Amino acid sequence: MKAALIVKHGDRSNVMVGEYPKPTLQAGEVLISVKACALNHLDIFVRRGIPGRTLPLPHISGGDIAGTVAELGEGVDNVKVGDRVMIDPLVHGEALGEDLTGGLAEYVKVPAANCIPLPEGMSFEDAAALPIAYGTAWRMLITRGQLRASETILVLGASGGVGTAAVQIAKVAGATVIAAAGSDDKLEKLRELGADYLLNYNKVDFSREAWYLTGKKGVDVVVDYTGKDTWHGSIRCCRRGGRILTCGATTGYEAVTDLRYVWTKEINIMGSNAWERRDLEILIQMVQQGKLKPIIDRVMPLEEIREAHRIIEEREVFGKVVMHP
Questions:
Q1: Which domains does the chain have, with CATH numbers?
Q2: Whether the Cβ atoms of residue 22 and residue 307 lie closer than 8 Å to each other
Q3: Across the 325 residues of the chain, what is the mean pLDDT of every consecutive 10-residue run?
Q4: What's the rounded Cα separation, in Å, for the pair 22 and 26?
Q5: pTM, whole model, 2 decimals?
Q6: Looking at residue 26, what DSSP letter applies?
Q7: Which residues of 83-102 are buried (b: 16+ CB within 10 A; e: fewer)?
Q8: Contact predicate 113/78, CB 8 Å
Q9: C-alpha to C-alpha distance for 124 and 277, rounded to whole angstroms
Q10: Nearest Cα to 117, choosing from 241, 292, 237, 277?
Q11: 3-class SS at 77?
């Protein structure tokens, strides 16, 4: 089968489209004919190589998968051939595309239990955009962050997959949203998503501006998954008793924390990781109800996988990049 293969860790020249053996099913597994697979910054990290983790190469990344059931393994009775499904990427504590073979291929095998039925009318592209970015944002803001309607939230990196998800989810929750991104064009798109205030962090000090926008009280919640470059500013603009939520660090993990602000303002720093299956089911319902619209920057053929990596690395995207195997 055709697949996007990471042949060694390093720059994007090390990912290429080639032939790979079609998966062989074990009991309880199904074979998915992949119709759409969305990329995340995680795919970039996997290609570069994650410290302390060794993967057999070549490796197929891609955790955001939607498609149809092509074959059934022994004992499978919860789905049938031809069913349209979205895949929950978490498999017994490991992640498709990161720890396990992913979906940037014509076929992928997954446990049948990880199949979530897709409603009629929901596209494969929209479904593929949901699990990692929207699942992560939902758990971070709602389950962990307990975001309330009366609060003000600052979303850094608001134009990315998790960022656009966080802006939409925060608006559904009734919060006031300050969205920060690196270009005026992206900020205008965030305004269309409902962001109340817009900050171009290439032109202004986002921390100072957020401080003044809140009447020098600070924001109730900061979403910071950029890490090293923004962490100090996030702490400075958080209000007394506020929360800083993080689910990653795209600019570096070694972020300096000025502890004086943490203890004097009694700031709560909260990590959030992954999602639960129920979160994904809720997100599908919200899309059906018109409360959420997965933001897709572009859909590309698998043959353009290197270009897809480039535009994500160089932050030329707004929302998700979806690949067609």
A1: 2-130+275-324 (3.90.180.10), 146-271 (3.40.50.720)
A2: no
A3: 97 97 98 98 94 91 98 97 98 95 98 97 97 97 97 97 96 98 96 97 97 97 96 97 96 93 97 95 96 96 98 95 97
A4: 13
A5: 0.93
A6: P
A7: ebbbbbbbbeeebbbbbbbb
A8: yes
A9: 18
A10: 277
A11: coil
